[in-house]
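thread: overnight batch results

M.L. [08:02]
morning all. the overnight job finished for the chain we discussed friday. pasting input first so we're all looking at the same thing
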Amino acid sequence: TAGFFLGIAFSPLLALGLNHIQLSIFSLCLMIAMFVLALFFLPETLSREKSEEARRLRLMNIADESTCCCIFRNVKRPVVEILILNRDRLFRLVATLAFFSGMVLSADGLLIYYIQDRYGATDKEVSTLLVMVGILNIFVQAFVMKPLLDCIGEKMVLVVAFFFGSVHNLTYGFGPNIDFVYAAGALGSIREMSFPTISAIKSNNVDEHEQGRIQGALYSVSSLAGALGPLFLRFVYYRTRNKTFPGPGAMFVAAAGLDVIAVGIAFILPKNKVDSNIRDDEEQRPDNNLTDASNLSAPLLDDANSL
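M.L. [08:03]
and the structure it wrote out:
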């Protein structure tokens, strides 16, 4: 995540020395380089044993499969895979948070057009905003998120992130000038802790062989939200832009409302299943009990033998 925001922080600097055609060519070369890197150098996260076992089971299941059954299986597979999000109440709540997070984050994609239309922001001001947001997000992801998780746990990190997200969007919506946009961008860096935390919660509650499936399902929900979010926010914008209150910033007020709902959902998450420090303590407790029991049994056995 920090690497992603590092790109956001430094990408505006390219516009200072390159024109649009040169930027397009540079982006194409960068995409090709990333494709080659992923294809030939990126290591597989699943162990070889697990991968071979999964391949063997898959071949056994399709050994006597007809062509029609194969087509039907591949058509229904995305639905079957994403149903992991409906496994229990925790998964449904976290999937809902991921959806709201994707919906709200899509508002940032409309931000540049919004501040250019409402405040007449120049290219320099937009670049300054992106650099500032990128640097602050790197700082939060690298130096704030981990200590905060250790201190208050994943549940309260989500509450804090979505709360700051609501303030962040309200500042965008009601800010009278571009200085408030900079302030809102700073607050938004706290909100960016939400999706990595949601992803970690999901990973901590599934087995090793389900890691790819749960992450894929989670990103599917986020992608769906990223597609529906701009449609919803643009609808709000066009219905309210000519009104006195709340005016063209109403789409960010609507996004803040989604963040407030997400705060409420985060509050009802079961702490013992969400917070990794509590889960670790519960997993270690039986071992401690067994150790204590073995220490107690040794003298008793010695006494019995002596008799």
